[in-house]
Amino acid sequence: xxxxxxxxxxxxxxxxxxxxxxxxxxxxxxxxxxxxxxxxxxxxxxxxxxxxxxxxxxxxxxxxxxxxxxxxxxxxxxxxxxxxxxxxxxxxxxxxxxxxxxxxxxxxxxxxxxxxxxxxxxxxxxxxxxxxxxxxxxxxxxxxxxxxxxxxxxxxxxxxxxxxxxxxxxxxxxxxxxxxxxxxxxxxxxxxxxxxxxxxxxxxxxxxxxxxxxxxxxxxxxxxxxxxxxxxxxxxxxxxxxxxxxxxxxxxxxxxxxxxxxxxxxxxxxxxxxxxxxxxxxxxxxxxxx
Length: 290
What we know:
The chain is an alpha/beta fold. It has nine helices and ten strands. Residues 1-27 have low confidence and may be disordered.
């Protein structure tokens, strides 16, 4: 099932935006589509161990979409995320938001990593971790503190604002990292297997919380996962990547089922089976146990 193209601008009430969003929204350029356009990238180029990670890879993400990127290990998912984040430059092709080229990192595109323990500063309390990016931008201490508390409250961590990372559970650390990303009010939230290290119950809770926040603010999310079930439960679109080397997006599935979704629902299980079949072709084995 291929994804439909076109442009989309999410309907967001100005009264629903977080603190300072209304003024920031006016300053930013309105865009409709994030595009990775025919991108190729090789690591260790020209050396004996050169590896072609991506070959003419293309994907399109409409503004406000929840877009999941799925594929076997080593297929270049994180490389695509790094290109969108501006951490890596392509050998050829381009990454752009409409016609504006992405050439370096920017606060409109923020990454949430899998390992929250490494991402958080251990010497700072939770609220200080969330405030950090704002203070670097020159936001006053009082304003940064107020905004940090608002976002810690949004992710359900306000009562733990004065704890150090080592005092937080795995799920709490990930909530803190999410608040630190959201406080910058990014237009694109890039998530690299953010819940993979959590236990099953914490993972389900964090999936539900992420959907709640996305449905409220409708920022664009590009979400990397190895978990087919997770992709189907969360994504509006699920892109399956080919195995490397020379990977690219193989197929995009559009999921128009309402939230919350149940894997036992007939329509959901049908699209799940199609995505699994596509992924099985790349890994060369069945995904079923037994």
